[in-house]
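Students often ask why we bother encoding 3D structure as a string. The short answer is that it lets us treat folding as translation between two languages. Here is a chain of 332 residues written in the first language.
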Amino acid sequence: MKTNNKSKQLQTSAIALLNLVLFFSTSEKAAAQNNAGIIGIDHVGINVPDLNSAVDFFSNVLGFTPVTQLGPIPLDAAWKELNHINPETGAVTIKMINAGTGASIEVFQYADNKGKRVHPDADDIGASHIAFYTADIQAAVKYLKSKGVKILGEPFLTPSGDTAGESWVYFETPWGSKMELVSYPNGKGYEKSNPKILLWSPKNAAVYKANTADFDSGKNKALIAKHLEVWNEKDQTKRISLLNQIYATDIEMVDRNFIAVGHDEISSFIIGLQQKNPDSKFTAKSVETNHNVARLYWQFGSKAKPDTVTGMDLFVIENGKVQKLYVFVEAK
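And here it is in the second language, the structure alphabet:
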């Protein structure tokens, strides 16, 4: 929630994503993408020496799910020449793996493979890696070590710059491919400047990860009622208790002017708002829910003029708590 009377535009929320799509659909930068009809990344393909051991690693260590398989598919001479495959290499078998929230992984094994058996060095052209997001990188590293996975160093926390707040570390698969763990539960540095475009992240896909329990309309309306209690509560101890009850630890509140991440940043904003408007409070006008998404139409003001400011908050609810809060303020 925000009470800036000088603002004459609706505060940004999830709908801003649609506005970005419309804007960039007419820009020169997006011309090539639009002409090709490209929407995003569907999968990443990798070659492995042994399909069964690779699938075992992805499923039993990383927790992914094998879904489809093709082959063995014989390859004719013309295809091998066109795709730079050794003429003596045999048929290919392909397994597609669901890797959680994001692109899938397509795993290739060539029978009687006559290609190179050495991985490219990190600075070689064509070298690549896959990065997996985790909310707790230290716990993820501990787990991988318990499974005998080779970790290449220790997690590094970026102290400044665009990726400030991001921790990362590389690890090796049993067949020697380099992959990465990455984590930024409180966001990255560049997000604080309210950029026009945010990089996609699996951590921001809460709407796709919602549990069935998050679709309970009655529970979600009760949650929204407590949300108003948070914003009206002036006792710091009581407000923190309410924050812990209804907001996820890494909640993101997206406003046109800033992004607040976590309980502390939101609580600080509430304190400042209350200090500027000591006689005002928030009241609900109406609440609507749709699965794990809810929207609250609210007003803010004194007893004499309770609708000094009006607006709408859009919520994404995950695991019984608010994961995302997008803020609108209506023009007067």
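Translate back mentally: DSSP finds nine helices and 14 strands in the chain. Keep this in mind for the problem set.
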